[in-house]
Amino acid sequence: MPSHHAEQLLRELHASLGLRKRPEDIAQLIQDLFAGLQVGLDPATAATLEKASAHSLRRLWHGYTSMLEDFARPVGAQRQLARAATLFTSLPEFSEGAGEDPAEIESAIRRAGEEICRQYGENDFGLDRLNRAERAEAGIGEISKRQYNKRFRLLRRMEAKLARLLHEQRRREVTMTGKGALAHALPYELFAADPDTAAFVAYVTARANMRSIFTNGMQRRPYDEVTDALFQRLRAAPEQANWYAVAHAHPTAEVLGHLSDQELVRLLVRWNRFLREVAELLEDAWNRSGFEPASMIVRRGDDSSTWNQAAQAWGTARAHWFALMTELGREEVLDRVCPGKVPRLMAADVAYWHRRSGGGLHPDTYVWAELPRPWEVLRGEKECTRSLVEAACARHGVDPVAGGWTAPRPAAEPVRFHRTPELVHGVAVTDPLMASALRSAGVFSGQGKRAATEEWL
User: What is the pTM of this model?
Assistant: First the structure.
């Protein structure tokens, strides 16, 4: 049973799975947790954690960052609910979080609609409103036309707000899963059952949740030397580690090899469902924007934000799905259904930067352009077999296995730890105080709509 202080640290680490805390801050929490539990660390691991922890920063602003430590949250319907409560007598005073709960918003709309004899979904201002005679027949003749219209318009706006809120909440979930996989969905009891597991999952998720940097080179990889040191602790005591929790964020063959078939299938079902949800988002963004598959360069009017968030989520979900299929020995499924990777849209200025520096389009873009769209494959409308993908890769000089087109990616090698830079629209800035000033002034806002420049996961 951990002490009260240790449990507070575990809960803080668990809460960080859905946030964008700096890895340095998570490393500091892990240090404090191990110290509170009196966990013995070997010198190399202790030195690695010390180098990465926030307290090792020898600067005045060591505990400050100008970047938001949360994924962007959609604006709720608090204002609309408060207004409805003043117009409809059947509505109570709402709690503070009611505006972010779609079920409570819908219930309020339906209950308020009963006061003016309006059914949920009746939003046509010309056809669905009641005239004076119909209002009298319905028993609400005392409400004037002006007051009736005011209430009708409010409920119509609230339904539109609810639809936007559901869409934005879904996008936020997709963004979080695209970055940190299923870690944010881990229950606390599962996460905190083993401190070493909690430390590894929290740190690798913080690394995965880092923002992309404006560059024409490779983005930073999540698996660094600190991640590897924490993973070695799991290897040293495999019987104590909670490998099912680890698999939510780090599905290597070694990790999945510790899971039962039931646990593997449970994860596979979740990822299969998520793949289909993301495919719907991709299809919707594709149909609304009409991207050019052979270049994937963003143009004015394209919904690049939704596409890029969904593309990253697709890549994460697809990687986990491939790893689980392989561990379950179901490679024959991939022989018949092998949906391709999805590129992110690249800003035109970044594409120009690539060309100026001697680069060009990633070869995977040409493979993507030849293959059926993923949503068509999942619906069974078009075939995308492993042999078809291998042939497309061969035509463009891409290794289908090493590139993750037909098999899980090999286990990552640890990279050196580097401190998290302060970013302004993806551009690294010297310190958080300067970053905050530049962000307020709108500096760098023209340098590409998206910070990410490596379009492949």
Answer: 0.85
Count CA atoms closer than 13 A to 357's CA, side-chain side. 11
- The CA distances from residue 247 to 81, 201, 272, 367, in Å, are 41, 9, 15, 29
DSSP one-letter code for 416: P
Contact 176, 312 (CB under 8 A): no
Q: How far apart are CA 327 and CA 451, in angstroms?
A: 35
Confidence of residue 432 (pLDDT cuts 50, 70, 90): low
Residue closest to 202 by CA, chosen among 223, 174, 183: 183
Q: What would the two tokens of residue 243 be?
A: 């490998």
- Residues 102-129: pLDDT tens digits? 999 999 999 999 999 999 999 999 899 9
Helix (H) or strand (E) holding 255, with range, is helix 253-256
Q: Which two tokens stand for residue 421?
A: 């830079």
Nearest CA to 252 out of 362, 414, 398, 378 is that of 414
The 3-state DSSP class for residue 341 equals: coil
β-strand pairing of 427-429 with 422-424: antiparallel
250-272 per-position pLDDT tens digit:
999 999 999 999 999 999 999 99
Cα-based torsion angle of the residue sequence 291, 400, 309, 19 in order, rounded to the nearest 10 degrees: -170
380: left (phi over 0), alpha (psi -120 to 50) or beta: left
- Is the pLDDT assigned to residue 416 strictly greater than 70? yes
Distances, alpha carbon 114 to alpha carbons 81, 201, 427, in Å: 16, 48, 53
Strand boundaries in 308-360, DSSP class E: none
- DSSP state at residue 96: T
Q: How far apart are CA 387 and CA 405, in angstroms?
A: 11
Q: How far apart are CA 51 and CA 23, in angstroms?
A: 11
Residues 440-454 as b or e (16 or more Cβ within 10 Å = b): eeebbeebbbbbbbb
Kindly report the CA angle at 419 between 418 and 421, in degrees rounded to 5? 120
